[in-house]
Amino acid sequence: MKESTPISFRIAVIVALGGFIFGFDASVISGVVGYVTPEFGLNVWQQGLVVSAPTLAAIFASLSVVPLSDFVGRKRMLQVVSFLYFVSAIVSAFAPGFWVLVAARAVGGLAFGSLMITPVYIAEIAPPKQRGMMVSVNQMNIVIGLSAAYFSNYLLVQLSQTTAQWVSWTGIDTHTWRWMLSMETLPALAWVILLFLVPESPRWLIVKGKEKEARQVFTQLLPIDQINTCIAEIKKQCAESTRSPFSLLKELFHPCMKHVLLIGALVGIIQQITGINAVFFFATSIFEQSGVGTDAAFAQAVFVGVINVVFTIFAMLLIDRLGRKPLMIIGLSVIAASMALTSWGFSSARYEITDSNLESLEITTKKELLTPLIGQVFESDVEFKKEITERIGADAMRTDGAAILQVTMDINPIVVLTGILGFVAAFAISLGPVMWVILSEIFPNHLRGIAIASIGFINAMTSFAVQFLFPWEIEKLGTGPTFAIYGVFAVIGLILVLRYLPETKGKTLEQIKKELVPGH
Q1: Are 300 and 309 in contact (CB under 8 A)?
Q2: What whole-number distance in Å separates Cα of residue 225 and Cα of residue 227?
Q3: CATH 1.20.1250.20 region(s) of the chain?
Q4: Helical H runs in 319-372?
Q5: Is 198 left (phi over 0), alpha (psi -120 to 50) or beta?
Q6: From 1.10.287.3510, 1.20.1250.20, 3.40.366.10, 2.40.30.10, which CATH number describes the 7-347+414-516 domain?
Q7: Of 136, 279, 327, 458, which residue is least crowded by CB atoms under 10 Å?
Q8: Distances (CA, A) of 111 to 86, 126, 376, 450
């Protein structure tokens, strides 16, 4: 393909805008949950469901979106999910209660299928030597979206505390979380419009017997003398692409596909079970657990977004030079160390109510309810929060818990911040971009859609479990032990990657297929 032409890259940037919207949708809830919890009176299970509802819906989307894109086309399916994002953002912002908010966010979760379609589409138009970098554009957009949401949340929180008349007139001061959610409508609408400018995947067109249309697309992507050869190779590998989804699924689970399925499932599970979406989706709550207060928690969440962007850029520069497997090894090693540091930071915290910090405490709850605890030292955040809740009640704890932790906790918040940022940086150069690159490379053309849907289902199930259980884990196990669990999973993942993950850099999709699925 014309490695010098920017056309394929421009197309990839537009298509990958869905990654930006996913990132924004995923992380904007980190600021919202602290507002809706007291407003809607949510318990830990309801908090988990509000945050994880999109991923729950994505489990079902993962089984249908990519196979549907095999039927109706990559472009058309992307247009559908772009519209779903737009609808989800509007309804979420105006949700009158818990169940409407959950349902609206679930609609956005159906659009998470863009995460699976986008790398497939980009891999099908990208030059082999630039494929890793171009597929990583989607991951880059995800992390920019994550960062944009953190910054947007922080800005809205700061505005809500001002006395400007326009802030009061627009309701930013009283409906801050609704404004946070409404910001997503802007990129979602832009994506709906821009997708009309991209062509259909030429490989998909050939699979469907539309060679003339495919040739027209390839004239933008390939030197003229390479078009016939490329089309012949695609036809040879996609001869069985018109088979039913059931026969394709049967072939996917044929013994000869066992190795690539193991690789796909491995990276799909490891990417989520190490806790990345717990950090992204609960970033503000995690930093509040370190006692820095609400404003500082929103500010530190911005650091998470910035670090994510910076190290994703490094990953894009390195993935086609250093390779997929080395990045995974480096990333998982640092993730394990970072989770250990974070766990130690939280586990070493001490909690004590004194006369002085009780006097300085600004809460709506009657302070005298806490006076029996003066002088008691707690070494467990679980026991401390349990005792506080028994004294002031669950509703008051939802409203004033962060403020109480801020003044009573003896912890080094820099240790926690360093651990979290180290984790995010390591994820950004490894599990984040590498998973989608590998999934877009290792499966044969005619099985790629249904294969990525199957791995996406596994990935989404793991992600949902992590998000849904996180508030419960924090309440019942404690913050330190929760992050220690993620560190253990990172070590297990590192061992498995060292043993099973192949290297695919610089190889054509056809070469990779011959090596990983010989005789297929």
Answers
A1: no
A2: 6
A3: 7-347+414-516
A4: 324-347, 355-360
A5: beta
A6: 1.20.1250.20
A7: 458
A8: 10, 24, 50, 17
Reduce the secondary structure of 262-298 to three states and give it as a string.
HHHHHHHHHHHHCCHHHHHHCHHHHHHHCCCCHHHHH
pLDDT, one tens digit per residue, over 162-173 is 888 898 899 998
Q: Which range has the top average pLDDT, 217-221, 277-281, 421-425?
A: 421-425
| C-alpha–C-alpha distance, residues 381 and 340, integer Å | 17
Tally of CB atoms within 10 A around 60: 15
| Closest CA relative to residue 465, chosen from 22, 51, 42 | 51
* CA torsion, ordered 264, 270, 275, 281, to nearest 10 deg: -10
Residues 325/503, Cβ–Cβ less than 8 Å: yes
Q: Do residues 305 and 154 make contact, with C-beta atoms less than 8 angstroms apart? A: no
pTM (predicted TM-score): 0.76
| Paired tokens of 519 | 């005789």
Sequence-ordered list of residues with C-beta below 8 angstroms from that of 166, at least 6 positions apart, any chain: none
* CB distance 510 to 444 below 8 Å: no
What percent of the chain lies above the pLDDT cut of 90?
25
pLDDT confidence of residue 509 = 63
Contacts of residue 457, defined as CB under 8 A and 6 or more positions apart, other chains included, come to 59, 62, 63
- Are the C-beta atoms of residues 332 and 270 closer than 8 Å to each other? yes
